[in-house]
TrEMBL record:
Residues 7-169 form the NadR/Ttd14 AAA domain. This is AAA family ATPase. It comes from the Bacteria. It comes from Vibrio chaetopteri. Pfam families: AAA_28. The lineage of its organism: Bacteria, Pseudomonadati, Pseudomonadota, Gammaproteobacteria, Vibrionales. InterPro entries: NadR/Ttd14_AAA_dom, P-loop_NTPase.
């Protein structure tokens, strides 16, 4: 397992992932934004934009292409790097939408990532419905469960990040990831 492989932070929408990643970035870690959110914002400005609630299959393919690029950029980092969602999320969203996952997407879903994945769970305190998150809180929880099952099914070790202050979450993540990479180094030696 390469230490250059990025860590994934995933979980249901509105769970504090982006806030956590921003705090990690402020500490100097390499962080990458959530591809689906960026694409939704971009595609919403177009007359014929591709959005997940109208064209999930096409939207998933766009996410996949961007996530492959993002993963490659993360691997070039000389420090711990973190992704806000990754290719396994695409698989989970397709399955959640009752669409099949292409062989191409599925074959990339568990390659070149750290095998420990950090999960944030949405709570009523963290969840905010907006134009990028048009579904109710209960659906965010269902999505969270689908994501968790997808990651576990792909062989990832899922670690839930407890609901704490942002600073406490950052400390939890940094300690966990540093311990994981130290263990990986000793196993490879």
């Amino acid at each position: 397992m390469s230490l250059q492989f990025p860590f994934i932070i995933s979980g249901g929408t509105g769970s504090g992932k982006t806030t956590l990643l921003e705090a990690l970035g402020e500490l100097g870690f390499q962080v990458f934004p959530e591809v689906p959110r960026l694409l939704i914002e971009q595609q919403s400005r177009l007359n014929d934009g591709v959005l997940p609630w109208t064209q999930l299959g096409r939207f998933a393919e766009m996410c996949f292409q961007e996530m492959v690029i993002q993963r490659g950029l993360a691997q070039q980092s000389k420090q711990l790097s973190f992704l806000d969602r990754a290719i396994p999320d695409v698989c989970a969203y397709l399955e959640f939408g009752n669409l099949s996952v292409s062989d191409n997407i599925f074959s990339e879903a568990n390659k070149e990532y750290q095998q420990t994945v950090l999960f944030c769970k949405p709570t009523r305190e963290t969840y905010v419905q907006d134009e990028v998150r048009p579904y109710p809180f209960e659906e965010a929880l269902s999505i969270h469960q689908a994501l968790r099952m997808q990651y576990q099914g792909l062989g990832f070790q899922v670690i839930e990040i407890p609901l704490m202050t942002v600073q406490q979450r950052v400390e939890f993540v940094v300690e966990l990831c540093q311990t994981h990479t130290a263990t990986t180094i000793s196993k490879e030696s």
